[in-house]
Write a structure and sequence with these properties.
Blueprint lengths: L1 H19 L51 E5 L2 E4 H9 L3 H8 L3 H20 L6 H26 L4 H10 L5 E11 L16 H16 L4 H8 L3 H4 L8 E2 L5 H9 L9 E3 L2 E12 L2 H8 L3 H16 L6 H4 L46
Helix pairs in contact: 1-4, 6-11
Length: 373
């Protein structure tokens, strides 16, 4: 009975908790700078010789064998599963688990199914399926599956209307602003950018002095693009007169970003320090994407889609009755909201992304009953 309880919790109670607990979206990763990319340092020399093959990466795991769909691949008690039936069971799992159980975790998942079917057969032999406790739990599990399915439909049907999308755009308009600019980079000692061939490595003081001199020459009327081609230590933009692709806020290192968005078109900055050295920035233009340009992306933002889903679910549940004597008054500290798990988002979030689990997860849902012979 103890083993039965363990497997029951693993395949029914624990999955129910997974379905009832939705993890909020992860915060957006910090944008990578558009400044000159760092060059990886040379690999350090090893003092002790390493035996051949020791540092060779391990071989990739073999691809799972494919068999005819009608081939019997598993027998456990009264249950027989074909390859097609096994795959159908995996299709019923959340998407994030499917690749694991079709690949390296296939045997592990089969072991779990074997325990499930053998123990469930034993439970029926002992007539546990006729007990009140079984009927209560099986009803709860059925309701949970149906609730998860209807929530999937609500998510798929959720549409962000124009008013909500436009409101979001107006409140976040600055995030859609872009700057087109040129820059001249003067490398300083310690910069990840390598020293140009034949050039002298400048100390921080020497690099700043050179940047100040170039700044004076630009203000005196020399052509910015010509100086960038001759003097900039950023080979990615120097050949193009220091011109950078248009960039949004947050894409570059903070010191560069702050100055670039403050400058007006045609203005030239004083030297700006970053980990790459000193930049002289000339802004060419400020542009802001229109609502129509970004509307498709806004309508897919999880923060807006989830708000529509929440409203739909709240409308469905607003008629529920809670006995005030039994449940008591509302508590001042509201616990985290419990939601049914929806399908993983495939859209870029306003704030992206969901890391895969670090370890092989336990099966998160009770597999559907297979066809018995």
């Amino acid at each position: 009975m103890e083993n039965m309880n363990f497997l029951y919790k693993l395949l029914i109670i624990a999955p129910t908790a997974c379905l009832l607990a939705q993890t909020p979206p992860a915060p957006a990763p910090t944008p990578t700078p558009a400044a000159p990319p760092a060059v990886a340092p040379a690999a350090p020399k090893l003092a002790t010789p390493v035996p051949p093959g020791l540092l060779t990466p391990p071989p990739a795991p073999p691809k799972p064998v494919q068999v005819p769909p009608d081939r019997v691949v598993l027998k456990a008690g009264s249950v027989t599963l074909t390859a097609a039936q096994f795959d159908e069971i995996i299709k019923g799992l959340p998407e994030r688990f499917q690749a694991m159980y079709r690949g390296p975790g296939r045997k592990q998942f089969a072991d779990t199914l074997v325990q499930l079917y053998i123990l469930s057969d034993e439970g029926r032999r002992r007539k546990l399926d006729e007990t009140h406790a079984y009927k209560v739990q099986s009803t709860l599990n059925d309701d949970n599956v149906l609730a998860s399915m209807i929530r999937d439909q609500v998510v798929a049907e959720a549409k962000v209307d124009e008013a909500d999308a436009r409101k979001y755009y107006d409140e976040h308009k600055d995030t859609y602003e872009q700057v087109t600019a040129r820059h001249i980079l003067i490398r300083a000692k310690g910069s990840p950018r390598p020293v140009k061939s034949g050039a002298k490595e400048l100390s921080d003081e020497e690099a700043l002095a050179k940047a100040n001199d170039l700044h004076k020459r630009i203000l005196a009327g020399e052509d910015f693009a010509t100086l960038a081609k001759a003097e900039s230590d950023d080979p990615g933009s120097a050949d193009n007169g220091g011109l950078l692709p248009a960039f949004p806020r947050g894409q570059n290192v903070p010191s560069f970003d702050q100055v670039a968005f403050k400058l007006k078109p045609g203005e030239v900055s004083e030297p700006v320090k970053s980990q790459f050295g000193y930049h002289i920035i000339k802004v060419e233009a400020h542009t802001t994407k229109t609502f129509e340009e970004v509307r498709p992306q806004i309508e897919k933002l999880p923060v807006l889609v989830q708000a529509r889903v929440k409203k739909a679910l709240d409308d469905m549940t607003k008629g529920a009755f809670y006995d005030p004597e039994f449940f008591g008054p509302p508590q001042p500290a509201v616990p985290p909201q419990v939601r049914f798990t929806g399908p993983p988002s495939t859209n870029p979030p306003a704030a992206p992304s969901v890391n895969p689990p670090a370890t092989t997860p336990a099966p998160p849902a009770t597999p559907p009953a297979p066809v018995k012979p």
